[in-house]
Amino acid sequence: MQHREDAAGVAVPTGTDAEPDAGHHAGDPPAALAGGGATAARPAPRTGVTATHLAVIAVGAYVGAQVIANVTSVKIGSTFGRAVDMGTFVYPITFTLRDVVHKTLGKRLARTVVLTAAGVNLFLAVYLQWVVRVRPDASYPFDDEFRTVLGPVWRIVVASIIAQVISELVDTEVYHWFVTRVTTRYQWARVAVSNAVSVPLDNAIFAVGAFGALPFLADDAFTLPWSAVWDVFVVNLVIKGLVSAVSLPLIYLSPDRDWRADPGDA
Fold this sequence. Notes:
Layout: E1 2-5, E2 11-14, H1 51-72, E3 76-79, E4 82-85, H2 93-105, H3 107-133, H4 143-150, H5 154-182, H6 187-211, H7 226-246
Antiparallel strand pairs: 1-2, 3-4
């Protein structure tokens, strides 16, 4: 029996051996479908976790962690004798989760998720501002406590959102650079490198914006001496760096993508 290669390089039979069986004419349905008793085979239903599931989980976890960090940051705790806002222990995880989103959905959608999370945080602050101004019902005795704890401090809110957007978008670009210019191997390394740039950047923007003696905020109630701002930066950077390092294995929750398929969206 002779063979030829089709356009894909696959060998197919030719000559008399390639002719249809006797009694079977071109265009006839396969034997399995002949008659009314047989039906076309249906693909087996998908089982297990797919890349789409992982992408949805990553996006939900990223936005959720952003909100959790912002809400819990109103509590100032003491860690190793140093004052730390309690959102510091959750927020660094968002940088690794952003990398997981980038890995599953690509660069463009990762940027969309970053901006969406910023919008959610801004909406939360605006909504809380409205809520604290609503007259409480006579049966509700905790209005003052609610106002004190959850009423947004706009200097903190703005500094936090600006720091988040800038640092997470920079994280996106560093991750993109690593997988397109350095290597697609060593997934932990791409996360470590991108976090090593974005986490200190986020920390610096937030510390200066929220507490620095800026020209137009020198007399603000939250303005601290620059020595205190430096202390806030160092303490938060150490904690965020440790949490970020612990979160590195999260990048292995999803299979790696083909970075060569669309380099512009890598």
